[in-house]
Design a protein that fits this description.
This protein has about 500 residues and is an alpha/beta fold. Helices cover about 30% and strands about 15% of the residues.
């Protein structure tokens, strides 16, 4: 890079790690992501700060754990006093944000981002700063201008429900729209340094969409935990699996508001074939993400900026997709908490290079600041991993902490299927990944220990095995030291 480097940070919503060829998926059709990976550092084990949208995004944007950043669950707005990366970058850079914000009602530019393309009308009831919705987001206004009719009343004007949006043709989905807007931004600002964040909603449920016939469900591989109820694990996981799989035995899912509104819109959850189709629909939506990535990387190439621009791709969390008998996120299982992470950094590597060990999203902000030649503030919880990228250090001994901060009465985080599950979701959890072992701790439930090397699918909970008592005590001590350092007050069990 001969000039001050640009940054393009792209993140999808609810995209699990095994959705790319570089992670061993040899059948998914993602040519643009494959091309990006071919010139990127590919992080083998990248973990989110908390496996649910708002807290994870707070971690990605601030370099702080959710319990410090403030948004510890969905529906909590990020304070104006909490700095995000755009607040920390010098005025030499033009900072733009495109797409799903989810750290407040994303109707206007926030936190140092001067260019802003909004998409989030549907969250007005959760993040509004006062008053009804009076203006549509840029994306929803684009749909109105294109001749589509809103189906949802949101105050003074009507807008579009997510379930309606997914029925529109490919070119009118959010990801392609954001790709076009990002490409315009690149062309308009190619003569000045810029930082651009682009966040689409795909492949978040509903899994149905314009490309849902891309894959034959029966041809897609599944792992050993697919539609398998977990045993000897937390009560929460067992109860959730019982709930999600109940309709394969009896009952009418069409009468289940949670399943028909959120978790499995338009899907058949009464048969294994239906569950396989759900997975096929999910993987098909990733082609929308891939098209967005292609529009952005093509724009960089056309503008002559490929060699001057750092491109990072990741997701805010994964999706269980029937693995361990569950859907969506809100779990420490690898399918929920581990995500893809690519870093294409001109001058560092021109080919795909795998990074082993464990990486946390908490390190994204300090690493990016370091790459851009900016000061790294002392208040950040993470640390720069520039030395790892330079080949001077590794992540093999790096500990990763993942939070679950429960849900709270009177605060939005949609009801989780049943009152029993909601009650259990109030409990706080802390997880640590250490040398490919994972320890999940909660005062109100059964704790979990998994050997991720020999038990990659987390089928065997070893917490009560006396052979591992010293390991559990060591990993617990590491969590407690982290709690002290980050002022985390979550109560953990004595072990």
């Amino acid at each position: 890079m001969v000039k001050k480097p640009n940054l393009v940070f792209i993140f999808s919503d609810q995209q699990r790690q095994d959705t790319m060829a570089c992670y061993g998926n040899n059948w998914i059709i993602t040519p643009n992501l494959n091309a990006l990976a071919s010139r990127s550092f590919v992080f083998r084990n990248a973990y989110v700060g908390q496996p649910v949208c708002t807290p994870s995004r707070a971690c990605i944007m601030t370099g702080l754990y959710p319990h410090t950043a403030g948004p510890v669950l969905n529906g909590i707005e990020l304070s104006d006093d909490t700095y995000v990366i755009a607040d920390l970058i010098s005025s030499d850079y033009l900072c733009g944000y495109f797409g799903k914000w989810h750290l407040g009602h994303g109707d206007t530019p926030q936190h140092g981002f001067k260019t802003w393309v909004s998409t989030e009308d549907g969250y007005i009831g959760k993040f509004v700063r006062g008053g009804p919705l009076s203006n549509r987001s840029d994306y929803h206004q684009h749909l109105v201008d294109s001749g589509f009719t809103p189906d949802r009343e949101m105050g003074e004007i009507n807008t579009f429900s997510h379930n309606k949006l997914v029925t529109y043709p490919k070119e009118f989905q959010m990801a392609p729209y954001l790709g076009d807007r990002a490409a315009e931004f690149i062309e308009q600002n190619k003569s000045k340094p810029f930082v651009m964040y682009v966040s689409c909603v795909e492949p978040h449920s509903p899994y149905i969409g314009p490309l849902q016939d891309a894959y034959k469900p029966s041809d897609l591989p599944v792992g050993p935990t697919f539609l398998k109820k977990p045993e000897n694990v937390s009560l929460l996981h067992r109860v959730k699996a019982d709930y999600y799989l109940q309709y394969m035995e009896s009952g009418d899912p069409s009468q289940d508001t949670y399943m028909t509104t959120w978790a499995a819109v338009g899907e058949d959850v009464t048969t294994e074939a239906g569950w396989r189709a759900l997975r096929a629909h999910y993987f098909a939506t990733i082609s929308l993400v891939d098209s967005m990535v292609g529009k952005i990387t093509d724009a960089l190439e056309k503008a002559g900026l490929t060699d001057d621009t750092i491109v990072i791709f990741t997701s805010d969390h994964g999706d269980l997709l029937g693995d361990h008998g569950m859907l969506e996120k809100r779990s420490f299982y690898e399918e929920s908490a581990r995500v893809p992470l690519l870093m294409a950094i001109p001058g560092f590597t021109n080919s795909q290079k795998e990074i082993g060990g464990s990486f946390s999203h908490i390190d994204l902000v300090p690493t990016i600041l370091d790459l851009l030649g900016q000061d790294v503030p002392d208040h950040l919880h993470g640390q720069s991993r520039l030395a790892v990228l330079e080949g001077k250090a590794t992540l093999e001994d790096n500990d990763v902490i993942i939070e679950w901060n429960g849900i709270r009465e009177g605060h939005f985080d949609r009801g989780m299927a049943t009152p029993e599950i909601d009650r259990m979701n109030h409990s706080m959890w802390r997880s640590i990944v250490c040398n490919r072992w994972k320890l999940n701790l909660c005062t109100g439930d059964q704790n979990e220990l998994f050997d991720l090397t020999s038990d990659a699918y987390e089928e065997h909970n070893l917490f009560n095995n006396p052979e591992h008592i010293d390991r559990i005590r060591d990993m617990t001590a590491r969590i407690r030291m982290w709690q002290t350092r980050t002022h985390d007050t979550a109560k953990l069990p004595d072990v």
